């Protein structure tokens, strides 16, 4: 004796299963959107135009920086500060305590080391006693209208002074 297999119509389809599939598609769509968003953020991050860490890195045209801003160069391992009076200072991202990578906290206008909570003001001057000197800087040169940072030569400094800021001629 054989049993007939009857096809089911869409109306007979288990509504719980349909809801599950709809939710699964929504979750997959959400994950895809997050990944596309993350890829977009990575693409839009500041990148050096030329050079790599350990050498001279072209950060960008002098006129391309807004006064009072800090730009991170992750691949160059530095932050480029464009001061309110159009000066430039390149800050090494390496914490002078034990070498962790410091972050720029824009809303607090300071640098922060997540390892042992050292903080530094917007010039890299230390604010906490766990470190005994300010963030190192890299020499800057201005050439053909471009800002160039020499990452081969980190410069130690105990405190920030105005002489650490470079100005285009
Ligand atoms: S390594 Fe930065 S505070 Fe310790």
> Per DSSP, what share of the residues sits in E-state strands of 2 or more residues?
15-25%
Order of helix and strand elements from N to C terminus: HEEEEEEEEEE
Write down the overall mean pLDDT. Answer: 87
From the alpha carbons, calculate the radius of gyration and give it in angstroms.
26 Å
How many distinct beta strands?
10
The total of helices stands at 1
Looking at the structure, what is the overall shape?
elongated
Overview of this protein structure:
- Strands 2-3-4-8 form a 4-stranded antiparallel sheet, with no helix packed on it. Strands 1-10-9 form a 3-stranded antiparallel sheet, with no helix packed on it. Strands 5-6-7 form a 3-stranded antiparallel sheet, with no helix packed on it.
- It is elongated, with a radius of gyration of 26 Å.
- With 169 residues, it is an alpha+beta fold.
- The termini are far apart.
- The chain has one helix spanning 15-44, and strands spanning 56-61, 69-73, 78-82, 88-92, 103-105, 110-112, 119-120, 137-138, 140-143, 146-150.
- FE2/S2 (inorganic) cluster binds next to loops.
């Amino acid at each position: 004796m054989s049993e007939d297999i009857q096809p089911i119509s869409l109306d007979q389809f288990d509504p719980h299963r349909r809801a599950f599939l709809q939710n699964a598609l929504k979750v997959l769509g959400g994950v895809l959107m997050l990944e596309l968003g993350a890829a977009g953020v990575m693409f839009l991050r500041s990148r050096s135009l030329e050079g790599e860490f350990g050498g001279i890195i072209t950060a960008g045209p002098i006129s391309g920086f807004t006064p009072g801003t800090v730009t991170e160069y992750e691949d160059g391992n530095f932050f480029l500060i464009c001061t309110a009076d159009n000066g430039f200072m390149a800050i090494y991202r390496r914490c002078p305590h034990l070498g962790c990578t410091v972050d720029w906290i824009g809303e607090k206008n300071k640098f922060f080391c997540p390892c042992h909570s050292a903080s530094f003001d917007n010039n890299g001057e230390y604010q906490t006693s766990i470190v005994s000197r300010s963030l190192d800087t890299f020499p800057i040169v201005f050439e053909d209208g471009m800002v160039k940072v020499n990452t081969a030569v980190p410069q130690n400094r105990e405190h920030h002074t105005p002489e650490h800021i470079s100005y285009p001629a």
